[in-house]
């Protein structure tokens, strides 16, 4: 187990490979282990760093409130600890939000940005969006991690042949600390750097599963605001694209990084 003392908390991380630093930021309720299909593929060319974010996995789970800038500061502290001046950053869902925060606040630390099934804001703009946010908050508050894991697994991996992925997801999700998970979720609600994404000058790849929660058109709209960004749509994929379409995802990221 590798742990760094960052911003007053213990932050667990995995590291593999050599070369330019490549930082992998997982999603809400996830952990670095969920990059298991990416670590071997990327470590052949890059120094891959995959932390368990605050409140997740084997990292510390201090009482809330949390915020996206706070979690971004944790990541910067880890890069400082590892003597990494700048890294390629890949962020899934919540990790994508943290990646956006890094890119607008500390652009010199971000060589390139890969945003996966995420966006630069989580602000409900319609009744439907507000209801979805409230549903997640209610699940987190009253259902517990195991029940929530069962509910989410069927949305993430709906196919009969994905039973093993559902079972693994439920097992890992059930290990979440309820208070830390709720604090992390609350950190995302209402957060936005949308008005600043036009400032991002590094190369940006936006990856969207065609069945992701957020419509592709929403991602297309914010991608158009970023000077050096392009959008890739992965077919037959939901929110967990690095898992349900790992081969296509890995190839898209490596191709992008080779030209960044």
Keywords summarizing the entry:
260 residues; Rossmann fold; eight-stranded mixed sheet; hydrolase; AB_hydrolase_fold; AB_hydrolase_1; AB_hydrolase_sf; hydrolase activity
Kindly describe this structure.
This protein is of the alpha/beta class and 260 residues long. The protein has one domain: Alpha/Beta hydrolase fold, catalytic domain (Rossmann fold). It is built from ten helices and eight strands. Strands 1-2-4-3-5-6-7-8 form an eight-stranded mixed sheet, with helices on both faces. Helix 3 links the parallel strand 5 and strand 6. The mean pLDDT is 95.
Question: How is the topology of this model organized?
Answer:
Blueprint: E1 2-6, E2 9-16, E3 21-25, H1 39-43, E4 47-51, H2 68-81, E5 87-92, H3 94-105, E6 110-116, H4 127-142, H5 144-156, H6 163-173, H7 178-188, E7 204-209, H8 216-223, E8 229-234, H9 241-244, H10 246-258
Helix pairs in contact: 2-3, 4-5, 4-7, 5-6
Pfam families: Abhydrolase_1
Domain AB hydrolase-1: 21-244
GO molecular function: hydrolase activity
